[in-house]
Design brief:
The protein has 6 helices and 4 strands. The protein is mainly alpha-helical and 159 residues long.
Length: 159
């Protein structure tokens, strides 16, 4: 239970809860810790407070962060659990499904970074990684100062 009126900062209280989950084996080395968005929703806190939770856990040496993918239990280099798909890949998969279903048409724009950030509750770097991932696979192309568009169907990757 979070004591919002007590002397211990909220971010330290939440970091302690996560540390206890690690100590009791509920979160194991390589497991993802809750994202900033998940922390915000679960504890009713601001984004800045959620960032401070993650920073506190990093400073304690309990977690490490991979930009665009999340924070994970352990030290850098700890093998990550296979069950967690990076957030940027989940966003890219969502866009691919919209392309395949016809909700996003060839030579039409995909949602801009700001819309992806809002829709998925992620940072700009994560939204950008998702678009870069789609571009590398051939699903989209970018026109400078215009936006990112769905590639013609003949350019889509073959399954």
């Amino acid at each position: 239970m979070i004591d919002r009126d007590g002397p211990v900062p909220i971010y330290k209280q939440i970091a302690e809860i996560i540390r206890e989950q690690i100590d009791h084996g509920e979160l194991e080395p390589g497991d993802a810790v809750p994202s900033e968005t998940e922390l915000e929703a679960e504890y009713g806190i601001a984004r800045l407070t959620a960032r401070r939770v993650t920073r506190e856990l990093r400073e304690q040496g309990l977690v490490y962060t991979v930009q665009g993918e999340g924070s994970f239990v352990g030290r850098p280099g700890t093998p990550r659990s296979a069950e967690r798909t990076p957030v940027y890949q989940r966003i890219a998969t969502d866009i691919i499904e919209q392309i395949r279903s016809g909700d996003l048409l060839p030579n039409r724009r995909i949602p801009p970074e700001k819309a992806l950030m809002k829709q998925h509750g992620v940072a700009k770097a994560t939204a950008r990684n998702a678009v870069n991932h789609l571009r590398k696979q051939g699903w989209v192309f970018t026109v400078p100062h215009r936006g990112t568009y769905v590639s013609p169907q003949q350019d889509w990757p073959q399954d």
